[in-house]
Amino acid sequence: MCGTMSAECWSLSFLFIFLLTGSCRGQYKPTWESIDSRPLPEWFDQAKFGIFIHWGVFSVPSYGSEWFWWYWQGQKIPSYVNFMAKNYPPGFQYQDFAPHFTAEFFDAKQWTDIFASSGAKYIVLTTKHHEGYTLWGSKYSWNWNAVDMGPKRDLVAELASALRESSSLRLGLYHSLFEWFHPLFRDDAARNFTTANFPQEKTLPELYEIVNAYKPELLWSDGDGDAPDKYWNSTGFLAWLYNESPVRDTIVTNDRWGQGTICKHGGYYTCTDRYNPGHLLKHKWENCMTIDQRSWGYRRDASLSDYLTIEELIKTLVETVSCGGNLLMNVGPTHDGRILPIFEERLRQMGQWLNVNGEAIYNTSAWRAQNDSVTPGVWYTWRTNEKAIYAMFLSWPNTGHIFLSEPIVSEVTQVTLLGYKPLKWDPMKPTGLQVYLPTLPLSQMPCSWAWTLRLTGAS
Given its phi and psi angles, is residue 173 left (phi above 0), alpha (psi -120 to 50 degrees) or beta? Predict the structure, then answer.
């Protein structure tokens, strides 16, 4: 028995309370019912737009997909097997790519400038993908991390520091729960996940490590390896994250915490990659998608037609936000740390558009109608405090006017083209209005690619 004031007694008492309640504070218990009751921090819904960054050893072969290792040696897809046989010597292993992940051109401040110029409000960096290689010097990934092998630098720390020093961008970190070829995971899987050696010795320690070290405001979990959330102890970790972690008040999480949790549990839903339902959901959601339509990681074999145009990207942003979602748009840097000019161009173009139309995106809510029921390509948002309706239209009519069927106008209704000035309009029957658009040369257009009408005094 320990003395009443001894350190050992206090430690045992603390452990006993923790085991009973799931945490010391105990506000959120390690159950999905409790975890899902936590309100989503407001900043995430207000932000609307973020940048995803897929970067790792897969950026070295930069062929096909960031799933290169699995497609080559897991599924043995012929195109990947032939690529290796043609370009690398016999016996070459995936681990042999790691020394070539050099990041010599990686400049965190330059990246931050590009991301900030896009108008994004947060970034999500892949700290570890399914290959298991960590972009920080993890104690739990010995000799398979960016400090021990490759750049010999803590890439996560460099980007986190640059974000906080020179921008208002919030830091998000992606982390894969499972690893394709880790022997502990493969052994647990062979035992039908009745043992949990891999999460106990690898996944969970890494998660605690990155949260405590880098204090992200978003944690993007992925890759359950077909294992249930109980195997990953997801609710136990999330209870600590929400109750005790250094980011417990601001942290946002997604829904990928084990088989069966996606689109069901967590802070916000991702449902599937490139999820874009086209209608309002009852729960906050995010559309994670890629500029390169075929891959999240950089591909040397990409062609120009594989990259989405700025028109397509803005259309996706507008549709997503109108339906209550956030857009997380992915870029794939090169092995040496460059963001390709085509990615940079798309990001800066998005920022140019948001400089004019951001009022219709940031801090808005979904309106009662997401898109116009008569005029195609018109999407709505709503700013509650100002009682303003925003109608974003994706093509400029050649008729000189545009018909909006959804707003109910009054004598005091005013319509303004963002970046220009108020416009004339006429009411229509039984409802709606016809807005007369100015005839402008390209040099005087307020923006390109899509335009926004701001309506006040309407309902």
Answer: beta
Whether the Cβ atoms of residue 217 and residue 160 lie closer than 8 Å to each other? no
- In this prediction, residue 166 carries a pLDDT of 86
Per domain, the residue ranges of the chain are: 32-360, 365-456
Q: Tell me whether strands 378-383 and 170-176 are parallel, antiparallel or unpaired.
A: unpaired
Query: What pLDDT sits at residue 95?
Result: 98
- The contacts of residue 399 (CB under 8 Å, 6+ apart) are none
Phi/psi at 173 (5° precision): -125, 130
pLDDT in tens, 135-156: 999 999 999 999 999 999 999 9
Kindly report the three-state secondary structure assignment for every residue of the chain.
CCCCCCHHHHHHHHHHHHHHHCCCCCCCCCCHHHHCCCCCCHHHHHHCEEEEECCCHHHCCCCCCCCHHHHHHHCCCHHHHHHHHHHCCCCCCHHHHHHHCCCCCCCHHHHHHHHHHCCCCEEEEEEECCCCCECCCCCCCCCCECCCCCCCCCHHHHHHHHHHHHCCCEEEEEEECCCCCCHHHHHHHHCCCCCCHHHHHHHHHHHHHHHHHHCCCEEEEECCCCCEHHHHCHHHHHHHHHHCCCCCCCCEECCCCCECCCCCCCCCECCCCCCCCCCCCCCCEEEEEECECCCCCCCCCCCHHHECCHHHHHHHHHHHHHCCEEEEEEECCCCCCCCCHHHHHHHHHHHHHHHHHHHHCCCCECCCCCECCCCCCEEEEEECCCCEEEEEECCCCCCCEEEECCCCCCCCCEEEECCCCEECEEECCCCCEEEECCCCCHHHCCCCCCEEEEEECCC
Give the per-residue pLDDT at 375. 97
Q: How far is CA 69 from the centre of its chain?
A: 23
Q: What is the pLDDT of residue 25?
A: 55
What are the residues whose beta carbons fall under 8 Å from the beta carbon of 110, sequence distance 6 or more? none
| Amino acid symbol at 415 | V
The percent of residues above 70 in pLDDT, for the chain, comes to 95
pLDDT of residue 139: 96
Q: Which CATH architecture has domain 365-456?
A: Sandwich (2.60)
Cα separation, 414 vs 435, whole angstroms: 10
Q: Which CATH class is domain 32-360?
A: alpha beta
Residue ranges in the chain modelled with pLDDT below 50: 1-24
